[in-house]
Structures are given as C-alpha cells and as structure tokens.
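RETRY 2/3 - previous attempt timed out on the joint model. Re-submitting the same 1000-residue input unchanged.
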Amino acid sequence: MMANQKKFSSGGVEWSIRVGDGSPPKILVPQETLASRVWLGLKDKIARFVSRVWRFLVKAWNLAVDDPRKVIHCLKVGIALTVVSLFYYMRPLYEGVGGNAMWAVMTVVVVFENTVGATLCKCLNRIVGTSLAGLLAIGVHWVARQSGENLEPLITSKIDLTVVFLLTASAATFSRFIPTIKARFDYGAMIFILTFSLVTVSGYRIDKLFDMAHQRLSTIIIGTSLCILVTTLICPIWAGQELYVLINKNMDKLANSLDGCVSQYFDHGDEKTEKEDKALLGYKCVLNSKGTEDIMANFTRWEPAHGRFNFRHPWKQYLKIGASMRSCAYCIEALIGCIKSENQAPELIKKQLRNTCLLVGSNSSGVIKELAKTIKTMKKSNTIDLLVGEMNSAVQELQNDLKSLSCLSNSDSPSFQEESETPENKKTEKSQKAAATIPLMGVISVVTFASLLIEIVSRTEAIVEAVEELSNLAEFELTVSKQNQSNQKDEQTMQNSQMV
Amino acid sequence: MMANQKKFSSGGVEWSIRVGDGSPPKILVPQETLASRVWLGLKDKIARFVSRVWRFLVKAWNLAVDDPRKVIHCLKVGIALTVVSLFYYMRPLYEGVGGNAMWAVMTVVVVFENTVGATLCKCLNRIVGTSLAGLLAIGVHWVARQSGENLEPLITSKIDLTVVFLLTASAATFSRFIPTIKARFDYGAMIFILTFSLVTVSGYRIDKLFDMAHQRLSTIIIGTSLCILVTTLICPIWAGQELYVLINKNMDKLANSLDGCVSQYFDHGDEKTEKEDKALLGYKCVLNSKGTEDIMANFTRWEPAHGRFNFRHPWKQYLKIGASMRSCAYCIEALIGCIKSENQAPELIKKQLRNTCLLVGSNSSGVIKELAKTIKTMKKSNTIDLLVGEMNSAVQELQNDLKSLSCLSNSDSPSFQEESETPENKKTEKSQKAAATIPLMGVISVVTFASLLIEIVSRTEAIVEAVEELSNLAEFELTVSKQNQSNQKDEQTMQNSQMV
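RETRY 2/3 succeeded.
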C-alpha cells in the first residue's frame, strides 16, 4: 500500500491511498471543520436573507414613490391612533368612558380604510350593526327573564335563549352570502353577530347591561367620528375620484394599445422601443380592472358630494363604460393574436390595406381619446359626432379596400405559391385550382385583422353611447365655442394625417 | 249662482258651482279625510315592503337550495359560537381565562370563514400577529421604562414611546399595501397594529401586563383551535377543492360555449332553446372568474393535504390553466361578435365551410372536454395526443377549404352584388371590378370566423400544455389500458361525426 501526498493550492492536503490490488487510488478528502461549515452556511443564509430584505425594501420604496398618498394614509392612521390613545392618558375622559376606551382604539384600527367611501361604509356598518344587535339582544334577554320569572323555570328560558341565539347568529351569517348584503353590509352583519353574541352571553354575568351597551356605543361613535374627520379632512382619497381616474386612464391605455397594435401589425419589422411595447399591452389593464371598478363603485354610494361630483353623480354609469371598454379590449386581444400568428400575409397585400387600416385605427383611437377628454373635462364634446363620422367613413374605405384586394393577381404573392405547393390531403387539386385564381389564403390574416378592426369600431361606438349617457345623466356642460370646435377638428384631422 | 249635486258610484258627492258670468262650472272635489289618505299611503308602503321582503326571502331560499353547504356553514358558525359561549357559563373555565373570555367569542366570530384555507389563514395570522405585537410592545415598554428610570425624566420616555408607537403603526399600515403581504398577511398586519396599540396604550394603566398578554393569547388560541376543529371536521369546504371544481366547470362551459358558438353561426335560423343560449354564454363565467381563482389559490397555501390532493399539490398551475382558458374565451367573445355582426356571409358560402368549421369546433371542444376529464379523474389521458392530432388535421382541412372558397363565382352570391352596388367613394371603379372577379366582401365574415376558430385551436393547445404541466407536476397516473384507449377513440370519433 502506497500513500501519496499532494499539495493543494487552497493550502489543504490530499491523501490518496493505493491499495495493492490494482484498483485506482482512493482519495481521502479531509473533512472541513464543523465550525467553518456552520459559519459558511450561516454566512450564506444571512447574505440571502439580507438581499431578500433589501429587495423587499426596494419594492416598498417604489410603491411609496409611485403613490405617495399611501404614505399619507399611513400617517393618517398614526394620527388617528395617537388622538384616540389620548383617551387613555386623559383622566377625565378615561373615567367618562371607563375601561371600554379600548373599544375606541379598536374601532380606529379596524375601521380606518384607504378611501373615504370604504371608511364611511365600515363606520356606518359598525354603528348600525352594534346598535341593532345590542337592542335585539337586550330585548331577547328581557323577554326571557320576564317569562323566566313568571312562567317557566330558569333552565327552560336558558334553552330558549340558546335557540334564539343560534338562530340569529346563523341567519346573520347566512345573510352575508346574499350578494346585495355582501356588497354593502358584510361588515355590519359581522359586527351584528359579534355584538349579539357578546351581549347575549355576557348578560348572565354583567348586571349593568345598559351601562355597558351605552359605553360601547359611545366609544364606537367617538372612534368612528375621529376616523371620519381624519379621513375626510387630511388629504382625502375619494373612491369616486379613484374610479373616475381609473376609467380615464384605462381609456387612454385602450386608445394607445389600439394605435400600437395597428402600427405593430403593419410595421412589425421596425424596432420597437420598450415604451411602445408597454403601450401596446395597455389593454390588459382594461381587461383586469373589473374587480377594482366594482369595489370602487360600491364604495361611492357611501360618499357625500366631493370635488366636481355631486351627491347623485351616476357612478354606476362608469361600470357600464368600463364594460364597454372591456368588450373592445377583447377584440384587441384577438388583434394581438393576429400579430403573433404564424400565417402572415405577404407584405404586398399588407401594403394594400396599410393606409386605410392605420386610418381606421387612428380614427377609432382618436374617438376614444376624445371620450377620455370628455370625461376628464366633464364637458360635452362638440367634435365627437364628427370624429365618429370620420371613423365610419374610414371603415367604409377599408371595406372598399377589402373588395379591391381581389384584384391582385397571384403572381404578386410568391409566399402563397410556396404554401400551396405543400398540400397534404384530399383537397389538393381543388386548392391548387384556387391558388391559380386568387391568393385568398395569403390574405386571410390581413382580412381577419381588418374585420376585427371593423368590429372594434362598432364596439367603440358602444363606448361612445355609454359616455354620452353619462354626460346626460351627470349633466355635463356644452361650453366649447364654434371657433374652438373647428380648430379642434382641424387639429384632429392633422393628427390623423400625420399618423397615417 | 246654482249648485248641482251628483251622486257618485263610489258613494261620494260632487258639488259643482256655476258662477253667473257664463264661465264653465267649477267642480269642488271633497278632500279625502286625512286618516284615509294616511291609511292608503301606509297600506301601499306596507304592501311594497312585504313584497320586497318576500322577493328577498325567495332569493335567499334559492341561494340556499343552490348550495346547501352555505346553510351548513351557518350552522357550523352557530355550533362554534355555542361551544365558545360555554366558557361564560362554566365557572371553572371562566375563572381560568377571566373576563377575557370575551376574546374567545370575538375570535370565533371574526376568524370563522367559509373555506378551511381562509379560516386557517385568519387563525394563524391572528395568533402570530397578536404574539409578535405583544412581544414587541412589551419590549418597547420595558426598554422605555428602564431608560426612563435611569437616564431621562419620564416625560421624554413617553414622547419616545409615542414616536415608536406612531412609526410602528404606520409601518405596519404601509405593509398592508405591499401585494405579497396583502395577499397573505393582511389580517395579521391589522391584528398586529391592533394588539400593539392596545398593549402600548394600556401599559400605563395595567400593571399586570404579562398576565393580560397571557390571557389574551390563551383565549385566542382556544377560539382559533375551536374554529379549526369545527371547520375541518364538520363538512369541510376546502379552498383547493373549490378551485379544482371551478376550473373543471369552467372547462366544460368553455367547451360547450365553443360548440354552441359554431353551430349558432352556421345554423342561426334554427330555433334555439333557452338551455342552448345559456350554454353559449358559458364563456363569460371563464372571463369573470379570475378574481375567484386568485382568492382560492391564495387560500390553498394554508391548507394541509386533503382528499385527493397532497400537501405539495401544484395549485398555482390551476391559475395558469385558468389564464389559458381566458385567453381562449377572449377569442370566443370575438366569435360572438361575428355572429352578431350585420355583415353576414351569403348562406352558400357559409355552407362551403360549414362542415369543416363544425369539425374544427367539435374537435377543439372535444380536446377541452378531454382535458376536463383528465383533471376530473386525475389520470393522464392516453387519447389527448390523438385528439390534438385530429384537431390539427381538421384545421388543415379548414385552411384548404378557405383556399377553395375562391373557386366560387360571384353569380352564386347575390347579397354581395347588392352591397357592391352602393359604393360611395373614389374607389368605386376598383371595387366593382373586384366584385366581378370574386365575392371577397361576402366571405369576409366567414373568413374572419374561420380564422378566429384557427386561433382558438392554437389557444386550445396552450390549455393542453398547461394541463400537461399540471399532470406532470401533480404526478397524475397513467391507467387507461390500450383497449380502453381505442374504445375511447372510437367513441370520440363517433361523437364528432354525429355532431358534424
């Protein structure tokens, strides 16, 4: 047996033992000391943890920079909590509401939401839920005690009580499944169950039931009033305003997506900047914002008049506008499918339709942008009818172009020839005959694209209708002068011609 | 002046006074008595209220009949509440946890959710949030008190405390805006703020801080354990199972929608039953279920192994499947646009493509149904490759048919002639020349429909991929025998040929 010793660059030593039976030498790697391994593992884990925390902080920072109102909201919560905590520090107030001052703190933490509407919703739900449940529970209690004293032994009344308790709690729980209640009074129903349970159950222990109820209600009213004051007075975030801005932004995104889509299809060879790519995918925001729209519209019903919106502002109409925009966005999704499709039309055929398609696209997005402007300025647009007219005449032109497509002879489209030369099934003869007549297969992609564009135009008209309904319901003003109107029209036409 | 008196059928009396100047007689209608008017108004209101309550009850009843598990959930809440209330009735237990038994009741009401995952999520969030906040608050308190005694006057330490309090509450509030935290720990963050506030604030009043913390934690643990027991042992509703069923149902709906769509387009003259109309619109469920899918997938991460799902079941993959189904549903939306479009292709041209389109549609929906079966049985399908192959060859056939479309002479399509006879712009000549060659305008609608179908096929393949990935990740078994396989194939082919 031989033992060789080699020096390692790392300073360690490798021992290899050669057994005298001709087998290859076995290498003995010296085990790292336990301490160093633990240290290495720990170092690795700490490094990973630190980088994770760092990434998390960067994400949080970006979130704060993107929407500083979130930071303001946090400060508002801090202020409300500090003020409500004073109830603990100030002796007179403390004695006024007793140990129940805790409920005021709890109310602030639970009720304070990002938007005014959400906060008001929770506040009113909490107050009404608590009051109703308290009254009901005390009533049930009183009836049970009266009948218990006069008619039945105490034990039966207790069973009655339990049954009532069970039924009420279950019914209230079930009510939270009903959509209309869930949308508006879900929190109230929970508070109802909570209060009802607490009062019913504690009725056996605490004699001063009315005192307790009174104290709880007053602390809740203190907490909710404070929340309402802070949320409406310090940089208020209105759910209505949020919905309004969301719809507006989505409208712009939809218009840009449409523009990007059409130009991407016809000029796909050109280099696209990252910004243009982002604009192209803006329609996805429209597709995904249904949930947010519903939530915001739900909270608007709790909000008073604010900013440019009066109390009876038709918030529901924004949902209709959102739905019509989504229906348009579905078609843009299908357009993107055309762009990504493998069956692309020959460039020559694309060229034939390029200008009219670009015109239809830019006219349609122009209409959407004008609608966005209508909503933004809250003034009826004078140019919208003109723009819609232009859009429709562009569609007419596109339809004529589609008809003229068939004038192309197949000699102009080599790509189709290649395709038709590899037919694989029984219809070969028929299709070759077809190929000799007209390169239909080559134009399918572009025809699909064009007819989706036409569909988008008709869906854009649905958005126009929805916005018009809004402008009537919300009584938007007509203030643009005739002079302005013609200027704007010229501007719009110029823009369109520049884009095409 | 004359006064006439007429008898009314209603038993009332009408007095008309004729003034002597030739003017028509004035009729004096006797005022209804106040009481009767109030009574009528009241009756009307009561009737309306009763009918409203009645409709509400009917709605609730239907909800309960549709999904009896909702009723069971309500009973479960009732049971949990009853059990937890026993803490108030049983003296030994009551003395054990003191007046804080209230927290157990509160925990049950707040934490008990419909699905096991949601309940577990809230339970763990509540326990961890309370513990962390309690520890932190007591720690801060202790440090402040130590330094207050040794180094600074008490008032400074109070200010320090307030700053710490403000910072922590604000930071925790901000964390609720961060998407990853919002998805998993939103409730925990709220409970953290709540507990931190309560302990920090009450630290000045209650000396037995540790006792309080211990009691609160133990009542919360009692409440959460009870909730977990009831929710998992009595008819558990698993979020994972719900997600699984939702995806399965949506897949069937998508397949039926696709079938309905294609047959509606080609046989729109036929009478449609209400059921078929409903099936046609099934794709809307797919479009609208993103929110539910996200929520359910979020809760699955809290659930242990259950039913046929082990602990590491790849729930996220269901979201991918859902997304691929939605991408398919967008195209079906565009198909519906074709069906509703005013520009319909002449029946003759439709007939040319009818059979292949129906074949592509039924093959594609057959593939989706097979995928639904794969998920339902949790067994890898042996026929899926064959079905996908058939689908693709049907697409090939459709493409060939599209090519052969151009063989039609325009004499067969009178509708196109009508259209081309009303041209309104400069391209008139060109388009009329086109019309003489080939009725392209008339086929645009059907070409669009067909190419959307082809797009749907390629998106169906994306669903196939997503489901295959799921079957690999979740290790679905391969159990269908060769014999079965060929039988199934025959069955499938028969079904397809029957549908065409």
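Residues 116-150 of chain B form the longest helix (35 residues). Closing ticket.
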